[in-house]
Amino acid sequence: MAVKRLYAALRSPVNNRRRLVCFYLELKMTDPTLDYFINLGQIQEDDASHIQWSHATNSKHKVVAALNGPCHMIEADILMRGNEPKEPIMAHPPMRDSDITLQEWLEKVKKQNNKGIKLDFKSLEAVVPSLALLEKVSGDWGAPMWLNADILPGPQGTTTPLEAQAFLDAVGSGASPVVLSLGWTTGWSAETDNPGYSWAMVRQMEEVCRGLRHPVTFPVRAALLAQSFDQMKWLLQQSDRYTLTVWTGQEDVFAVEDLLPYRRHFGRSKIYYDLPDSERLELCNA
Fold it and tell me: Where do the Menorin-like domain residues begin and end (predicted)?
């Protein structure tokens, strides 16, 4: 779509340098993740459902297992150590310590250098020191690098999101090419009806992301998507830079059938499925 728009702009008699620059940037800042793994020969088609994920890779044992396993993207959580020495570590609240620091984690992953990473920030104070470490290794880091944070309140969300502008100011100042994974705090309960993502929520998110130069993926909760199709359709229509990443909580219950409209309606490069392999493969074959 962006290529067609660029071609139309080049033919337009009212074309100007600013328009060309804007279209060029849009082309350059689309998500490179799928192309990376296709070029490695690990994926054979332009279909994001083939991407496999390692979750909560927050220990030495888990990162070794992920590096030796079939996953393409290694996801891990970052927060500041709760005691001295204060430094970014790999842990998910309520844990406040870990057997591996972010620096050690990055060094291990970089040695293999054919796995992408998704770093999930759980505290704002961890962002700046973590980005400083990322800058040290990013010069010859060819693999995809995603930076994730929940920056807005979402359906039944009870945790406090990271302050959106502070997070974006920090990650936007870095020189490394990254994909921003920007989500909502959410909740889900088997005991009640669960509302989906409201129009106000998706419009607020799009307003936040509209001026960003990075590709953006929106992590969305699978159990809330049946009631959110129109909102997500609108959101993806706002920019070629946008994708969705479908995820699920450990206790969530959802029907794969509820995700089929997304699979059928959107281009297959537009939605990642960070789901258990049984559900992901069912969608992959749909």
Answer: 47-278
12 burial via Cβ count (<10 Å: 0-12, 13-18, 19+) = exposed
Q: Taking the complete model, does pTM exceed 0.90, yes or no?
A: no
Give the span between the Cα atoms of 245 and 236, in whole angstroms. Answer: 12
Q: How far apart are CA 280 and CA 285, in angstroms?
A: 9
pLDDT tens-digit series, residues 94-136 = 888 999 999 999 999 998 878 999 999 999 999 999 999 998 8
H/E stretch holding 205 = helix 199-209
Give me the sign of the Cα torsion angle 281, 145, 128, 245.
Answer: negative
Q: Are 163 and 192 in contact (CB under 8 A)?
A: no
CB 116 within 8 A of CB 125: no
Residue 285: how many other CB atoms lie within 10 Å: 7
Domains delineated in the chain: 1-29 (no CATH), 31-284 (3.20.20)
